[in-house]
Amino acid sequence: MGKDKLKKWAENEQFHNVHQPPLMDVIKKGLTYNKGEWHEKVFKNNNPIVLELGCGKGEYTVGLARRFPNKNFIGIDVKGHRFHKGAKEAIQEGLPNVAFLRTRIEFIEAYFGKDEVSEIWLTFSDPQPLDYIGNRRITSPWYVEKYKNFLKPQAIIHIKHDNPGIYEKAMKELPSIGCNIEAHSDDVYGPYLHTVDEEMQDILKIRTFYEQMWLKENRIIKYVRARI
Ligand SMILES: C[S@@+](CC[C@H](N)C(=O)[O-])C[C@H]1O[C@@H](n2cnc3c(N)ncnc32)[C@H](O)[C@@H]1O
């Protein structure tokens, strides 16, 4: 085990904005965690909650939290050493509207209650090209049906990705389960960027760790925004 990972895990234990309930309590005992209680117990306000699923280092979680102090942001990933960076930055900057949750997204319904969440960002999710059922691809209808159990009516799902398959599947699959595609581009930094307002341009220019890698390889970044 790398010393760096161990150090980050130990620091995560001390960070007030990191939540790491035992996953086995959810899987084996059917327990829930903060379900329906994030406003009251964690953020102490009633502002909209936005999730970044598979958040990695949490660039969107922290980047959006800086821009929107009147919304709450939760980055979720199974790898705590990755979101350690975002959690530490949020603490150093005194951002009260940021939390990170360590869990597997398969079990996400144990953590959020009906109508608790207003928006979801799926940033450069693992593409899982061989996942025909969709139960490993967190942008699939199999997952979106789960998300609907805690999303408010008219909630928004954003997908940002380099993979053409993820983009094309989202464009086809999301309408098939009743989602309305409100905006999309197969080249977000091309002419499309100048068709959206300045606020959205600024949001779309947040670059995650994986996005930066793919941009160095000249991959073209795609974006879909759907309303449930
Ligand atoms: C390709 S990385 C992208 C990370 C980040 N969003 C970015 O753009 O830099 C995918 C991330 O999703 C996480 N992940 C994949 N499947 C997951 C699951 N089922 N539950 C929780 N996290 C998952 C991985 O740990 C990883 O950090």
Ligands bound, unique: S-adenosylmethionine
Distance between the termini: 42 Å
Shape: globular
Order of helices and strands: HEHHEHEHEEHEHEHHE
Average pLDDT, rounded to a whole number, is: 96
Share of residues in helices: 25-40%
> How many discrete domains?
1
Concise summary:
With 228 residues, the protein is an alpha/beta fold.
Topology:
Layout: H1 3-14, E1 18-19, H2 23-27, H3 38-43, E2 49-53, H4 59-67, E3 72-77, H5 80-92, E4 98-102, E5 117-123, H6 141-148, E6 151-161, H7 164-176, E7 180-185, H8 198-204, H9 209-216, E8 222-227
Parallel strand pairs: 1-4, 2-3, 2-5, 3-4, 5-6
Antiparallel strand pairs: 6-8, 7-8
Helix pairs in contact: 1-5
This protein binds S-adenosylmethionine (SAM).
S-adenosylmethionine binds next to helix 9.
Task: Note the main attributes of this structure.
8 strands; globular; eight-stranded mixed β-sheet; alpha/beta; Rossmann fold; 228 residues; binds S-adenosylmethionine
Polypeptide structure, described:
The protein has an eight-stranded mixed beta sheet with strand order 1-4-3-2-5-6-8-7, sandwiched between helices. The chain has one domain (3-227): Vaccinia Virus protein VP39 (Rossmann fold, 3-Layer(aba) Sandwich), CATH 3.40.50.150. The longest helix has 13 residues, at 80-92. The chain contains nine helices and eight strands. The protein is globular. 36% of the residues lie in helices and 21% in strands. Bound molecules: S-adenosylmethionine. S-adenosylmethionine is lined by residues 54-56, 77-79, 82, 104-106, 123-126, 208-211.
